[in-house]
Write a structure and sequence with these properties.
It is a single chain. The protein is an alpha+beta fold and 330 residues long. Helices cover 16% and strands 22% of the residues. Strands 1, 3, 6, 9, 10, 14, 15, 16 and 17 form a 9-stranded mixed sheet that branches. The chain has a 3-stranded antiparallel sheet with strand order 2-5-11, with no helix packed on it. It has a 3-stranded mixed sheet with strand order 4-12-13, with no helix packed on it. The chain is globular, with a radius of gyration of 20 Å.
Length: 330
C-alpha cells in the first residue's frame, strides 16, 4: 500500500527511530533535560535539569555538563520547545513549515496529571497491553484547517537507571543501570490523517494507546521496561502533498513534551497513594468506589491516604486554562 501520508509517516518514523537506540546516546552533549516538579518523589535521589528548547534527540544526565537552556518563549514553565535539528552539533536550525510553525497544544486534565506527578506517576504495563490513566488528551490550536495532519506519540526513557520502590520510606530509589532498551515504537492516532479543522474542533484522546512489557508484542503496543521512567512525547506531522516530501520531513513536524506526564512503568502499583488516586479519579474504577472500603486492596483503603485528592473529591475533569502548556520540541 502506498500513499503520500504513509510515505510521510515512514520518513517521520526514520526521524523518530532514535528511540530504538536512545540508551546509546545517554552521554551525548546537549539535549533533553527534565526539571523537578514541586514535591517530585525522585528529586532526592537524582539530579534534574531544565528543559532545553534547543535540542531534541540527545540526552544529558548527572555528571555531564549541560549548557544553559535558553528561556522558553511560551511563558509556561512546564513546557519546552526545540527543533529536531537544532542540537549543538547540528549544521543549521531547521525552519519549520508554516503549516506546523504556529501550532500550540494544551494538555487536558492538567490538574490531575500534576497531582499524580507530585506523588510519582505509575503506569501499569502487562503482557496483553494496558491503557494509560490518566489518558493522554490534548486540545490543538493553530493548524491549517484544510491541511492534513497525523498525530503520533512515542516514549523516551527519562534516564539510564532502573528503580525500586522502598515501602518503608515510601520513596523510589535507584536500583542500578537501566535494562537493555526496548524496541522503539511510534503510536499514531487511529484517526490519522485528518484535516486540521477536524483535529481542532474537539479534544484529541489517545485512549487506544496501550503499554506492554512484552518484547515480542505483535499488536503495535508501546513496549516499555518495568521499573524504568519514561517521558511521553506528542508529535504533530503535516502530510506534505509534494512528491519529494521526504526532503522536508524534519520541517514538517512539531513535537510537544509535557513534563507532568512522565511516569514509572510498573507491573503492579507500588505507591498506595497512586492506587487510591487512580481508584478515586478513574471512571472505570466505579466498582471500587461503590464497594465496601474493607473490600479494597490492602493498603489502598481511604484511610491510607490522609489528604484526599481535590480532584477525587470533585471528580471534575477540568483541563488547564486555555494556553500553550506543551513544551514544543520540534
Amino acid at each position: 500500500i502506498s500513499s503520500p501520508w504513509l510515505t510521510q509517516l515512514s520518513h517521520f518514523c526514520d526521524v523518530a527511530a532514535f528511540t530504538t537506540s536512545s540508551l546509546s546516546s545517554l552521554n551525548t552533549p546537549g539535549g533533553y533535560h527534565l526539571s523537578p516538579s514541586p514535591g517530585d518523589p525522585y528529586s532526592q535521589h537524582e539530579s534534574h535539569f531544565e528543559p532545553c528548547p534547543a535540542a531534541q534527540h540527545n540526552y544529558n544526565y548527572p555528571g555531564s555538563n549541560p549548557g544553559q537552556a535558553p528561556p522558553s518563549d511560551n511563558g509556561t514553565p512546564n513546557c519546552s520547545s526545540s527543533s529536531s535539528s537544532s542540537t549543538p552539533n547540528s549544521k543549521s536550525i531547521v525552519k519549520k513549515n508554516p503549516k506546523v510553525a504556529n501550532i500550540n497544544v494544551q494538555l487536558e486534565m492538567k490538574a490531575l496529571w500534576d497531582e499524580f506527578n507530585q506523588l510519582g506517576t505509575e503506569m501499569i504495563v502487562t503482557k496483553a497491553g494496558r491503557r494509560m490513566f490518566p489518558t493522554f488528551q490534548v486540545k490543538i490550536f493553530g493548524m491549517d484547517p484544510m491541511a492534513d495532519y497525523m498525530l503520533l506519540m512515542d516514549f523516551l526513557p527519562v534516564d539510564d537507571k532502573r528503580y525500586r520502590y522502598a515501602f518503608h520510606s515510601s520513596s523510589w530509589l535507584v536500583a542500578g543501570k537501566a535494562d537493555p532498551a526496548t524496541p522503539g515504537r511510534v503510536h499514531y492516532h487511529p484517526d490519522s490523517p485528518a484535516k486540521g479543522a477536524q483535529w481542532m474542533k474537539q479534544i484529541v484522546s489517545f485512549d487506544k494507546l496501550k503499554l506492554t512489557n512484552n518484547l515480542l508484542d505483535d499488536n503495535g503496543h508501546i513496549i516499555l521496561n518495568s521499573m524504568h521512567r519514561y517521558q511521553p512525547r506528542f508529535h504533530v506531522v503535516y502530510v506534505d502533498p509534494r512528491k519529494d516530501s521526504e526532503k522536508y520531513a524534519e520541517e514538517n513536524y512539531k513535537t510537544f513534551v509535557f513534563e507532568e506526564t512522565r511516569f514509572t512503568a510498573v507491573t503492579a502499583y507500588q505507591n498506595h497513594r497512586i492506587t487510591q488516586l487512580k481508584i478515586a479519579s478513574n471512571p472505570f474504577a466505579k466498582g471500587f468506589r461503590d464497594c465496601d472500603p474493607e473490600d479494597w486492596p490492602r493498603n489502598h483503603r481511604p484511610g491510607s491516604l490522609p489528604i484526599m485528592s481535590a480532584f477525587a473529591r470533585t471528580r471534575n475533569p477540568m483541563s488547564s486554562p486555555p494556553q500553550q502548556n506543551g513544551t514544543e520540541k520540534g
